[in-house]
Amino acid sequence: MNLIEEFNDYRARMNDKIMAEDNKVIKRFFNLDTNAYAEGALDIKSKEMIGLSCSMVLRCDDCIKYHLGKCYEVGLTKKEIFEVFSIATLIGGSIVIPHLRRAVEYWEELENQ
């Protein structure tokens, strides 16, 4: 199983378990997240770039992978991705670099699938 399949399978499996508990607060939070990234005054592409950059600064590898996948789905180019990476690294500082390495690896997997 490759990096992308492993991440997506795990995420889907665990989300199913979380949703099966029927917790109103968790369900509402997940819904809020879904709605925040829907088309609005900002297009989805812009929102995903913001989400990716914030995830890198906050150093959440799962979030980075998720937003990289969405960025790939909405057609971001490698040049656009690296501009997002550069902003996140600038804002987050050198502590973002390990996450940048993993993000580049994941992006390459997306491009090669």
UniProtKB/TrEMBL annotation:
This is Alkylhydroperoxidase AhpD family core domain-containing protein. One of its GO terms (molecular function) is peroxiredoxin activity. It comes from Algoriphagus zhangzhouensis. It comes from the Bacteria. Keywords: Oxidoreductase, Peroxidase. Residues 27-105 form the Carboxymuconolactone decarboxylase-like domain. The keyword Oxidoreductase applies. Gene3D superfamilies: AhpD-like.
